[in-house]
User: Which sequence fits this backbone?
């Protein structure tokens, strides 16, 4: 048992030099990969072509600080696939769900698929990875901002660009 813990510790230390590898580990630990990932670069291309619907699965206070342009707030704690089905009637609509890193958005993606949506993807690395790639985020007034709500000080370590905001 001690050897296993030591081995896991050494692996985590060796990956700490590379944030991408440590993000891979974080998502493998917390996600079942039940929803196909899409990269921020792929989403950016789709967004420029206006060919997807982007859903923000964070809480309202996180969304209000900043969100990906054209994203719709759907929340997490009070998410309702029934409400989504009321305004997205075509179940084949391409949907990209994101949160801070891609953990909560996987849960929301699963609920969307259970509700019959057939083209749901999870944004790998969430809004943090989006901002880390220097893509724009906007505030509740639609103005570009550097602020990103990081949920907590603990989670803020995954955001390497922008201004970290947490309650």
Assistant:
């Amino acid at each position: 048992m001690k050897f296993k813990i030591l081995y896991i510790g050494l692996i985590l230390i060796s990956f700490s030099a590379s944030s991408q590898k440590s993000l891979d580990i974080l998502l493998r630990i917390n996600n079942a990969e039940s929803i196909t990932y899409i990269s921020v670069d792929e989403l950016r291309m789709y967004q420029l072509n206006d060919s997807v619907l982007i859903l923000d699965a964070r809480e309202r206070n996180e969304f209000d600080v900043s969100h990906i342009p054209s994203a719709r707030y759907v929340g997490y704690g009070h998410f309702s696939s029934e409400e989504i089905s009321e305004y997205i009637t075509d179940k084949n609509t391409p949907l990209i769900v994101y949160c801070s890193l891609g953990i909560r958005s996987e849960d929301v993606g699963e609920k969307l698929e259970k509700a019959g949506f057939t083209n749901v993807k999870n944004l790998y690395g969430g809004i943090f990875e989006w901002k880390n790639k220097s893509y724009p985020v906007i505030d509740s007034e639609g103005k570009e901002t550097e602020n990103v709500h990081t949920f907590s000080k603990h989670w803020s370590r995954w955001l390497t660009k922008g201004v970290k905001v947490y309650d």
Summary: The chain has a mean pLDDT of 88. Strands lie at 37-38, 53-56, 72-73, 95-98, 120-123, 137-138, 144-145, 147-149, 163-165. The helical segments are 2-15, 19-30, 40-48, 60-65, 81-87, 104-114, 126-132. The chain has two domains: 1-30, 33-165.
